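U., I forgot to send this yesterday:
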Amino acid sequence: MRLPEDISPLVQAAYGDDPLGPDSWAAKMAKARVAYRALLAEKRDRAEAFRLGPVRREGRPIIGWIDAGVGDADDTAAGRAQVRDTDDTLEVLVIQRRSDGTLTTLPWLDKARGGLDLPEHAVPQGRAARAAAASALNLPWHFSKPWVIDRTIRELEEFCPAAWQVKESPWLAGELFLVLDEDRRARLAGAEVRYSPSDGLLVVPEGAHGVRVVEGVPSFDLVSRPWIPVQRLDGRTDEMSLRDVFAEAAGLRRIVGDVPTQEFALLRLLLAVLHDAVDGPREIEDWGELWESEEPFAVVPDYLDRHRDRFDLLHPTQPFLQVAGLRTEKNDIGPLSRIVADVPNGDPFFSMRQPGPERLGFAEAARWLVHTHAFDTSGIKSGAVDDPRTKGGKGYPSGALGVGWAGNLGGVFAEGDTLKETLLLNLISADNDFLQVHTDDRPVWRRPPLGPQPIAADPDDPRPSGPRDLYTWQSRRIRLHHGDGEVTGVVLCYGDPFAVRNRHRREPMTAWRDSPTQAKKWGEHQVFMPSQHDPSRAAWRGLAALLSDKGQGREGAEQRQRAERTLPPGVVQWLARLTYEEYLPQLGLLRTAARCSVRRTGCTPLSQWRSPNCPRETAPDRVCCGASTATRPPK
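Result:
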């Protein structure tokens, strides 16, 4: 057998309808097929009582259509049957043991039920016993399979306070308990169990770090695992999961990132999630409702749960922002310095990681993965097998292939007092002349998994289709290699090309400049190119690029015939509209933050061209610049 070439044909043959195996298998295969079809029929019969009714004729009311014959999907057996058909699981009551050895109800329970004492050698008080009984959950399937269930029950029964097994303790007698320590952890049946109030139980193999078991394979779930670096309002920094970032956005100042450009890339990722979760906003009135809402991100948790598999960094078939099975002809695996932006190629002494990182934790690797799609440098890359652009095992920059898309921009975004405000201020509605959004705009995780080859051009499906597609644009094809709970290497190849010129109606987070040189090169009347930041100048000196030029003061007939010389970023035009429509105060101060990635060849020493705007020392071939300006709302 050849790996991985033979995997796909083998899987297709195993699950196909054609006869499989030698003739001696025929009888047993036929018997297995009959049993399988009988199982499907049984499942269908069990589900029949809970299926939705038939679609009625036009004009008929749909009242009661989703009742499924049993009412709402509550926590009864009938209610559970409406939404899932699963094997039985073990139910436990979850309590916690303090550092002094005493037991208590879970401290985060509401209605004053949290932190109540549960004496181990006496019958607990009724309120505490009821609170413990209400803290029931079903253990994941890992603990109820035939090969492990006996061990699970045996270990759970080791905690069985005799004082609770009496008739005076009806709430707790005969129950199984999962006892967490102060860090919300416990060991059970060869695994470490970690509990999160928002995400439930995480099952981690003993000895693994940052890895969760999902259906028997390693997993790093970006929805629930902390990986996004944030700054709280009191100045403290922390790492949060996607779910927690949205849940606590009102108490966060900003995303910080390992380098300033990482903040820009992660912000655009969060905006893609938010645009898709709210399915818009389609009109400015929809945005206004979100702005006025106390919980504008209430729909995000359910959205993340629906697409949770696509946010798994280690998924075997559709890993987050990667291509499963991506490989080169020689199966080469590159060093991590290819994606870590503070380790410049050829100048390792400008980095604290000299000579380069050999391993990365999953959280940091996820951040650099997002950053690489946005800001990766140009140059010769590895050539992926099955990529028609590969020549001699290499991928070469040509045409629209070069730096990652955001590396072409002079990045600009609106910055609020909290991350909640920042996300909303940059959430541009679709009813604007300066932003083109197609009805089928989707982020990459709602599209079929990509292969090594670039996407095919389709006149009926122009790409990027809008901000959701653009903010998750796959300018690279990447596969992270991991082992022993860490990322150890990477395959990095070119991805989807995207021409830079005249994209001002697609990209709202940069200013645009008229380029007669490019217009002459392409034979077009006018060509707009992104207006990049100059790190050698103070941020306020580039303020004119953020404001609209209506042609005042132009000289000559040719200049008067041209529509514009510069175009402000779409996000600045959006702020102007919000002010004009009185969603924002006209006399308030709004901050616009600038982020750029500057790359040079034949660079002078770092000390000769460091900008006072750069917040940290960076290498001369990869400089990340961050600056902010506060201005009154544009008119």
